[in-house]
Each structure stands twice: as C-alpha cells, then as structure tokens.
Amino acid sequence: MSEHHEHDHAGAHAHGHGAPRNPYLDKRRNGEETAVLEARVKAIEAMLVDKGLVSTAALDRMVEIYEHDLGPMNGARVVAKAWTDPAYKARLLEDATAAIRELGFGGLQGEHLVVVENTPTVHNVVVCTLCSCYPWPVLGLPPSWYKEAPYRSRVVIDPRGVLAEFGTTLGDEVEVRVWDSSAEMRYLVLPERPAGSEGLAEDALAALVTRDAMIGVTRLPAVA
Ligand code: FE
Fold this sequence. Notes:
The protein is of the alpha/beta class. It has a single domain, classed as Nitrile Hydratase, Chain A (Alpha-Beta Complex). About 45% of the residues lie in helices and about 10% in strands. It has twelve helices and five strands. It has helices at about 25, 30-50, 55-70, 70-85, 85-95, 95-100, 135-140, 145, 150-155, 160-165, 200-205, 210-215; strands spanning about 1-5, 115, 120-125, 175-180, 185-190. Strands 1-4-3 form a three-stranded mixed β-sheet, covered by helices on one side. The chain has a two-stranded parallel sheet with strand order 2-5. The longest helix is centred in the N-terminal third of the chain and has 20 residues, at about 30-50. The structure holds fe (iii) ion (FE). Fe (iii) ion binds next to loops.
C-alpha cells in the first residue's frame, strides 16, 4: 500500500471568496459525447453477441447488478454497522475484506479492501493516481471526476486545496492522508459519525452516509 503524506500547502489557497467552484463536478460529458460513446458501446455489444462471445442475457444481468446490487448503499451499511458495533468496527479495520463479506458484499474489484478511519485529527481521502481503481462492491462505479486527470493528479500534490473545492476545509490540527488505490488494494473511508446522530438506529445512520464521504472528499454534516 502506498500513502502520500501531504505537503504543507496551508497558505497556498486563499479562502473567503464565497462558495468554492468545484472543477471536478463541471467535467461531465456533454450530450454529444455521450451519444458517440453510446453508439460505440452498442456496436461493440452487437459484434460480441453476433460472434457468440457474450449473451445478451449475461450483459443484461451485468447492467442489473450495477444498477441495483452495487452502490454506495452497501458501503453505507458497512459504515453504519461500524458506528454501532465496536466489535464489528475492530474487525473492519483489521481485515476489511472479511468484515465486509460478513454483510454479503464482495467479489469483483473488492478482493482486497482496506478501511481507513477518519478521526478529529486524521482525515483520509482516496484516489487512484494511475487509473480509476475503486471498491466496486461497496461504492458501485466511480463518479467521472474520480477517473479524470485533474482529481487524480492534484489530490496528491495539494489535498487540502482539492478538499476545499469539495467544500471540505480542515483545520491545521487535522492530518490529511491520501491513499492511492491499485488493482491489489481498494480503500474505503470510514467517516466520523455525525454529531447529533447519537439516538439513531443503524438504518437511519446508513441513510446519512454519502458516497463522497466514503471517498473522503467530504465530511458528513451534523444531524439537525
Ligand atoms: Fe486504478
């Protein structure tokens, strides 16, 4: 596993200019680009089916899995259980792959999962600097900004600056740790349990957990 410790860029980003614009969220494909991609995917699919290399039923099942069975709701259940069950949390931090499998999540792109815990003095954020490695069983497919060069390169060089663009400003007392995913190791952030959530049951807690908080680009807000 590799971990980049942040450099000190505390002075590099001036704050107080209103809501930070998030360049990553602006980097979406336009309609024309999407149409070109869709046409290409359809052509490849038709050719594979035509040659007997895949069946349409298998492809439909894959799409179904990604639409319904995988996604941040799985990671949210893991996080909520860790918040409410200290023994589970200990197992999760010790061997995330096994602990996540206890809840029925695992398999493709989740063979070696590592959970890193946010605390009042440590904030973790996940990237794949090489490509787009991501813990599919617990987060589903990565958002487009996660796969694109600006996030992948800048979060390592200037994690505090990138986090600020996501609306996450951290005090100097908080150490930022950047985790570089790879084909071998996929990271999930265990966010801090929100203030005000003390009375909530596991299901209600899971509903508070967001994808971005489990990537580590945001923190979960206090419960009103
Ligand atoms: Fe990757």
